[in-house]
Task: structure prediction
Amino acid sequence: MNGEALYSIGELARRTGLTVKAIRFYSDRGIVPPTDRGPTGHRRYGTEAVARLELVRTLRDLGLDLATVRRVVNREVSVAEVAAAHAEALATQIRTLRLRRAVLTAVSRRGSSPEELDLMHRLARLSEDERRHLIDDFLDAAFGGLDADPAFVGIMRSLTPELPDDADAEQVEAWVELAELSRDPDFRASMRRVAEQHAADRAHGGAAGVRRDAVALVRDQVEPARRAGVDPVSPRADPVVATVVARYGDLCGRPDDVDLRRRLLARLESASDPRRERYLRLLSVVNGWPAADSLAPVLDWSVRALRARLPA
Result:
C-alpha cells in the first residue's frame, strides 16, 4: 500500500469523532469504502477515509441526503453545484415556513373559522403567476376598458402588490387580507365606480393641462382648513368649499352649480369607501412602501361640507 498508514474502524472513529456504527454504515453503503482488510478480515482505512468522513459529516449536517453525499465524495458532482441546488431548496423551505407562520399568526389574531383558515392557507400558497392572475382579474374588473388612458395604466401599476420572495410574516399576512379583499364583488364594484367617475372627469376636462384627480385636488384645498379646526358646516368653510368646487369645475369643464356639487359629492362618497383605504394600507405593507396618510378625515370633512350646502 506504498507505506500508507492504515487505521482500524475504531482508530478511525477516534480520529473523526464519529461512532463505529456510523462509519460502518457509510462503509456498507460505499460512501467511505475500506482501503484494505487485515488478516482477520477487519476493515482498514487509509488517510483518504479521514478526509471523506469529514466531508460526509459536513454534508450531512447541512441536510444533504445520502445519494447526494455519495455523488459528491465520488466526485460525480461538484460541491459548488450541490451547494447551489441545496441553497435553493432551503430557500423554498424557508418561504414555505414563513407562509405557514404568517397564516397561523393571522388565524390566532383573528380567531378564524376552519373555512377561513382553509382560504387563508390557499391564498398564501399561491404561486407568483397565480397571485398575478388574481390581481390582474381584480384590476381588470375595476379598470377594464379604461386603460387606454395612460393615466389608468399608472394607477393600475400603483395598485399592484408585489410580494417579495423573502417576505416576512407581516407582508404575507397583509397579502392574504389584500387577496381576500380583491375577491369581494362589492369592493370590486366600488372600485369600478370610482374609476368610471375619474374617467368621466378626465374625459370632460376643460382647462388645458388640468388633469388632476378630484380627491387629490380636494385634499390640497381642504387639509389646511381641517387642520385649522374649521367646522365644515360653518360659514368659515364657505370660501374653502367655493375654491374646491371652482377647481373641480375647472377639472371637469363645468360651472359651479347644484349639479356640479352633487357630482363632486358622489365622487367623494365613492372614494371614502373604507375598504379602498384598507387596500392601500395593505398594499404599502406588501410592497414595503411607506404608509400614506389617511384620506378619511379630509373626505369626511368635504362630504359634510357639501351636504350642508346642497338642498335636501
In short: The chain has a mean pLDDT of 86. Residues 185 and 206 are 34 Å apart (CA to CA).
